[in-house]
Amino acid sequence: SKESGRGRWTAYHPQMDEERETRNQMALDLRAAIDNEDIQVVYQPVVDSSTFELVSVEALARWNRPGHGPVSPDVFIPIAEASGLIDRLGLDVLRQSLMQLAEWPGLKLSVNVSPGQFRDPAFAGHVADLFYVTGIDPHRVVLEMTETYFIQNPERARTVLERLRKIGVQIALDDFGSGFSSVGYLRQFGFDRMKIDKSLVQSLGDGHRAVEMLQATVALARSLDVPVTAEGVETDQQAVNLRLAGCDQLQGYLFGRPCSPADIDALRLRPMDL
Ligand code: C2E
Ligand code: CA
Ligand code: CA
Ligand code: CA
């Protein structure tokens, strides 16, 4: 009864004020962490599905809250959204990871973008500035977004997408297969890549209907000529099925957990043998 969607109250409960207080305190601590540059970025390997070569990394935010320990991004990202901190947090992650990418020639980078950032009219301009100051080629970078904002505000979303495309950055649809994506809307936005949601990947093994669902989802993307990355790959069997279904890139614990830049350095020197 606590929450229905993320952080959305449905009915009054006596503990409500207390929980709100806890969230307010967390937002204050999060603001301090952003001010003090305490938000860290880890990088998860993304590999080519046929050679298993490292081709890209996804930047993921990490926050070690003083006195509490690590807080999951599934908790602090919604709080950043609700408290107006997401613009700064998102740009901080982008800045840190672009600087890091300068040390990894040949690799590509994915960075997550929240709907709240998309709503900021200055967003595309800030992105352009960060490419300018870091000197990174925008074609090496993919911004990952979920469908929420595209469905809620398609007109505005299209305008921002056009600006980002002019910069040269690519756009991926994240969590594909977990929502309501129709062919019409996928075509309309012309995404550069789709990322199959890990819930769909991990349903593989629940019977042959799951394989068919997955094949249909990948086929939908490929019918639009859009390359597909699968996330949440944990087993060899999943990797095989996903490659056969037509995914050109794989990401998941099977290939590596999100890790420090030093761990990515090591992977680049010694390609993974599976
Ligand atoms: P996401 O963008 O869908 O990222 C993939 C999540 O799946 C990551 O969780 C990753 O650690 C996890 N994952 C990867 N491979 C596996 C696997 O094989 N098995 C399992 N069980 N999980 C796997 P994480 O890092 O906890 O991030 C959760 C979500 O928080 C992300 O989901 C993304 O929506 C959001 N997030 C993280 N960092 C940022 C950020 O810098 N900006 C924004 N806007 N959102 C972020
Ligand atoms: Ca993502
Ligand atoms: Ca996802
Ligand atoms: Ca997600």
TrEMBL record:
Residues 23-272 form the EAL domain. Coiled coil: none annotated. This is Bifunctional diguanylate cyclase/phosphodiesterase. The lineage of its organism: Bacteria, Pseudomonadati, Pseudomonadota, Alphaproteobacteria, Hyphomicrobiales. The chain holds residues 431 to 704 of 723 of the full protein.
